[in-house]
Amino acid sequence: MRWRLVVPVKALPRAKTRLAPATGEHRTGLALAFAADTVRAALACAEVDGVLVVTDDALVSAAVRAEGAETVPDTPGGLNRALEHGATAAAGRWPRSGVAALSADLPALRSAELARVLREASRHPRAFLPDAAGIGTTLLAAAPGIPLAPAFGGPSRARHRASGAYELALADVDSVRRDVDTGDDLAAAAELGVGPRTVGVLRGMAVGLRRG
Ligand SMILES: Nc1nc2c(ncn2[C@@H]2O[C@H](COP(=O)(O)OP(=O)(O)OP(=O)(O)O)[C@@H](O)[C@H]2O)c(=O)[nH]1
Ligand SMILES: C=C(OP(=O)(O)O)C(=O)O
């Protein structure tokens, strides 16, 4: 199965607020860098034919287009409405592809690990990958013709499981599960190794990360 990914990114001034205590004025630059690095790694994945970013932010649009993604404008109603909107657009344009929602905050994403996750997801009508904390979700995938039915936000692992999506239990896909919401998450991602845009922002930070 071939895949199209839908990546949601809200407007930078509102993004990654939980990172603020650790990163101060670098918060928005990091949110942008995470999205660009996530898209870059996703597009380098052998299973992926394209990435559709749902965003109203001009800086995000420019950055992800430079990486090779396409963009669609956001729609009111929050994260799951944005994902449904993107998934509907992707299914309309590429009806023979599977559609997967992928978090935009995976700066350590490795293309080969994403490929393993998507190959495993191909075996199920709907499947999801829990985040590193085991509370949320970083990827929700649906086969062609199957509605994505996203239920992201907070404790979404339990919601996706209850919705009947298959929970992927794969070892050694840490980079696909390593979402970054806090300073501690960013330190953990940096240990895995982050992409070039995030490296650039981290190098530019005058002071080290504050834990939090
Ligand atoms: N397009 C779009 N993306 C959204 C929306 N809400 C959230 N997202 C994205 O979905 C992902 C998870 O969002 P949240 O956890 O709500 O927010 P966050 O920016 O990651 O972090 P916090 O501000 O700390 O909650 C991030 O990639 C967001 O940019 C929305 O209304 N539209
Ligand atoms: C939106 C989610 O993630 P987070 O709140 O961790 O950004 C989620 O895991 O469903």
Characterization of the model:
- Strands 3-2-1-4-6-5-7 form a seven-stranded mixed beta sheet, sandwiched between helices.
- The mean pLDDT is 96.
- By secondary structure, it is α/β, with parallel strands linked by helices.
- It has helices spanning 20-23, 27-43, 58-67, 79-93, 111-121, 156-162, 174-177, 183-192, 196-204, and strands at 3-8, 48-54, 70-72, 98-102, 126-130, 137-142, 166-167.
- The chain has nine helices and seven strands, in the order βααβαβαβαββαβααα.
- Strand 2 (48-54), helix 3 and strand 3 form a beta-alpha-beta unit.
- The protein is globular, with a radius of gyration of 16 Å.
- It has one domain: Spore Coat Polysaccharide Biosynthesis Protein SpsA, Chain A, CATH 3.90.550.10.
- Helix 2 (27-43) runs parallel beside helix 3 (58-67) and helix 2 (27-43) runs antiparallel to helix 9 (196-204).
- It starts with a strand and ends in an 8-residue tail after the last helix.
- The chain binds guanosine-5'-triphosphate and phosphoenolpyruvate.
- Residues 8-10, 15-18, 54-55, 74, 78-79, 82, 103-105, 181 line the site of guanosine-5'-triphosphate (GTP).
